[in-house]
């Protein structure tokens, strides 16, 4: 294991239950802790990101949007398939700075919006596939975000939420209130989606996750 990962895990072990650490896992911004959050996300989410993108069954001509791009792990996989513009939404300036340095493929556009209102950049009914990995826990009030999913998705468009409920169960509840799979599915269903979930085990602690899939009716 690389030294920087060992150091990041050690710091996280002591601070994981704090509001400040959870804030940085939501959206890195504090010097030092932002580095810890980014390092852990890179290590923990690479396999899951690749796996989810493969399950999205993307077609070259799909219009795809990812909320909470983070280190860019999933959007880089999406860009291997998609020819159209790919929209990434990333509220953290720290992450956006890093994404810029990464020189992502030219068809990726990163928006700085809060994902609850993309109306200045993303037209109604324009997206075929929506992805958010390790993001839903933090969105509040969740209903506002689900309504935005509904606005931007085409009829029959599909959303995918990658969730590691076990890993986030001790996160500060004020910062990460959405940690109940059944409640999230019922909120999606109540707001006009057909929603279901599947537990996926890729063999390691870091690669066990729940995939929530929802289709706009
Ligand atoms: C835990 S990280 C996950 C990053 C990446 N998807 C992954 O799995 O490695 C949560 C991401 O969502 C972003 N985010 C959180 N709230 C957001 C919001 N309201 N609008 C847009 N992005 C948001 C954060 O800045 C961060 O990049």
Indicate the low-confidence ranges by residue numbers: none
What is the CATH first-level class name? Alpha Beta
Largest sheet: 7 strands, mixed
Element order: H for helix, E for strand: HHHEHEHEEHEHEE
Named once each, the bound ligands are: S-adenosylmethionine
Taking Cα atoms only, what radius of gyration do you get, to the nearest Å? 16 Å
Please give the order of strands in the largest beta sheet. 3-2-1-4-5-7-6
Quaternary: single chain
Fraction in beta strands: 15-25%
Overall SS class:
alpha/beta
Structure report:
The protein has one domain: Rossmann fold (3-Layer(aba) Sandwich). It has helices at 3-15, 19-26, 33-55, 73-79, 93-101, 142-152, 181-190, and strands at 64-67, 86-89, 108-111, 127-133, 153-163, 193-201, 208-216. The protein has a 7-stranded mixed β-sheet with strand order 3-2-1-4-5-7-6, sandwiched between helices. It has 7 helices and 7 strands. With 217 residues, the protein is an alpha/beta fold. It is 37% helix and 22% strand. The longest helix is centred in the N-terminal third of the chain and has 23 residues, at 33-55.
């Amino acid at each position: 294991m690389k030294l920087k990962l060992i150091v990041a895990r050690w710091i996280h072990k002591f601070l994981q239950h704090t509001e400040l650490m959870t804030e940085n896992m939501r959206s890195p911004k504090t010097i030092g802790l932002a580095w810890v959050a980014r390092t852990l996300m890179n290590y923990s989410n690479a396999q899951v990101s690749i796996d989810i993108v493969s399950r999205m069954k993307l077609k070259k001509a799909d219009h795809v949007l990812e909320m909470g791009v983070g280190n860019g792990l999933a959007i880089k996989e999406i860009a291997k398939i998609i020819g159209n513009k790919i929209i990434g939404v990333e509220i953290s300036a720290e992450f956006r700075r890093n994404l810029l340095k990464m020189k992502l493929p030219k068809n990726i556009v990163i928006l700085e919006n809060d994902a609850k209102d993309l109306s200045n950049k993303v037209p109604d009914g324009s997206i075929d596939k929506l992805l958010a990995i390790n993001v839903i826990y933090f969105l509040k009030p969740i209903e506002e975000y689900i309504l935005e999913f509904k606005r931007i998705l085409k009829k029959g468009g599909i959303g995918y939420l990658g969730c590691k409920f076990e890993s986030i169960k001790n996160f500060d509840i004020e910062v990460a209130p959405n940690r109940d799979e059944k409640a999230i599915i019922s909120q999606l269903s109540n707001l006009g989606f057909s929603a279901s979930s599947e537990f996926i085990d890729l063999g390691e602690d870091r690669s066990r996750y729940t995939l929530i899939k929802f289709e706009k009716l």
